[in-house]
């Protein structure tokens, strides 16, 4: 979408990957209204927006975000180069009590201003990140499959390819959940680090990661779905979508055809705070008691309230963690970062959780009885 004010002084655009507004109206006097709708309904309330705006000369404009089928969840982030972002909640000058409308007062000029619900971390950004990691001698990049609209589903494998021991991670089943992807990137970078711990871990374990499971939804600026309008994290029973089928087949191939032993599955997401969503604690999984030990270790390192645990969340829905725990018998965690958590804190939590995970897994493997393997 491209839009110019009547006097041609102010221009809006969404003609970029992840750009999303559904309608724009000029109200007059430097005021504009943007309508934001979901791709389908009913839908999880994760209303996404992203646009560029610039003007022929410096001015202040009011932009009202009006939501249909949802409400305001993501505080605006702004950037002048699409690389460096900052929170812009201070630009909110009015809010509807129910969250259906929010008005921003934006300082615009001939320098493009990017405005979005979260930083833009899209398919191209991830492809570049994967290419950078793949230059490391212990990282291999490939494709797990292709999406509905034929976009690549990138896959990276980190560590010893001959190791039997495997950790599996994915991110971005839900397009707007950018902090989950940011956290996963830091987590993976910790595993790729030059520390003695990371080196020992990579010798003993292979980590497989899918950085963007829903590339179509990310490209189209969807709230929740893939290009077929399906919530991928509700498709882990029927496996009707090519994205979930590709990831399932990769997991099954690793365990079956390649004879690997899976230890842990992590699905990175975003919500209102840091939390581990798990299957019920009493569920018998390999390795015994791992998630409880990991969480205790992480909170001991970072602070007792850093990461919460909810072991009943979506317990009976067809989510990734439920399928993996039931069918593969291993610990499966939906690893959530807060939407508005400080990005440096996300980095610290991700690095801390990766290091504590590596310590525990190395210790568990060293002490594993032969009869305990699955």
Give a verbal description of the structure:
The chain is of the alpha+beta class and 374 residues long. The protein has 2 domains: 2-116, Immunoglobulin-like (Sandwich); 123-372, 3-Layer(aba) Sandwich (Aminopeptidase). It has 8 helices and 19 strands. The chain has helices spanning 123-133, 178-191, 196-204, 215-220, 242-255, 290-302, 320-328, 343-366, and strands at 2-4, 10-13, 23-28, 31-36, 50-55, 59-67, 77-79, 86-87, 92-95, 101-108, 113-116, 139-146, 152-159, 165-171, 205-210, 261-271, 275-278, 308-310, 331-338. Strands 12-13-15-14-16-19-17-18 form an 8-stranded mixed β-sheet, sandwiched between helices. A 6-stranded antiparallel β-sheet has the order 1-2-5-11-7-8, with no helix packed on it. A hairpin with a 5-residue loop joins β9 and β10 (101-108). α3 crosses α8 (343-366). Residues 119-374 form the Peptidase M14 domain.
């Amino acid at each position: 979408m491209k839009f110019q004010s009547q006097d041609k002084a102010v221009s809006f655009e969404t003609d970029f990957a992840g750009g999303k507004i559904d309608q724009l109206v000029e109200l007059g006097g430097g005021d504009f209204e943007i309508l934001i709708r979901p791709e389908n309904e009913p839908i999880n309330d994760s209303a996404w927006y992203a646009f560029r705006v610039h003007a022929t000369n410096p001015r202040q404009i009011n932009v009202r975000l009006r939501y249909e089928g949802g409400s305001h969840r993501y505080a605006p982030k702004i950037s002048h180069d699409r690389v460096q972002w900052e929170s812009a909640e201070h630009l909110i000058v009015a809010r509807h009590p129910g969250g259906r409308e929010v008005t921003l007062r934006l300082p615009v000029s001939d320098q493009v201003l990017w405005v979005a619900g979260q930083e833009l971390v899209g398919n191209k950004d991830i492809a570049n990140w994967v290419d950078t990691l793949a230059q490391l001698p212990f990282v291999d990049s490939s494709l797990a499959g292709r999406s509905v609209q034929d976009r690549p589903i990138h896959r990276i494998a980190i560590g010893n390819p001959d190791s039997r021991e495997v950790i599996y991670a994915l991110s971005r089943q839900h397009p707007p959940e950018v902090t989950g992807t940011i956290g996963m990137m830091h987590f993976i970078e910790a595993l790729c680090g030059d520390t003695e711990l990371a080196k020992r871990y990579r010798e003993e374990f292979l980590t497989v990661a899918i950085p963007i499971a829903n590339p179509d939804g990310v490209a189209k600026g969807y709230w929740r779905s893939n290009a077929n309008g399906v919530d991928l994290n509700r498709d882990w029973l029927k496996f009707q979508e090519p994205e979930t089928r590709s990831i399932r087949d990769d997991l099954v191939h690793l365990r079956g055809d390649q004879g690997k032993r899976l230890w842990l599955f992590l699905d990175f997401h975003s919500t209102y705070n840091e939390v581990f969503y798990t299957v019920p604690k009493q569920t018998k999984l390999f390795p015994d008691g791992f998630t409880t030990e990991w969480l205790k270790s992480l909170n001991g390192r970072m602070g007792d309230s850093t990461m919460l645990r909810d072991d009943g969340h979506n317990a009976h829905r067809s989510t990734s963690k439920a399928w993996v725990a039931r069918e593969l018998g291993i610990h499966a965690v939906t690893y959530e970062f807060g939407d508005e958590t400080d990005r440096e804190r996300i980095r610290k939590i991700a690095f801390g959780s990766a290091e504590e995970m590596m310590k525990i897994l190395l210790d568990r493997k060293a002490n594993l009885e032969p009869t305990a393997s699955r």
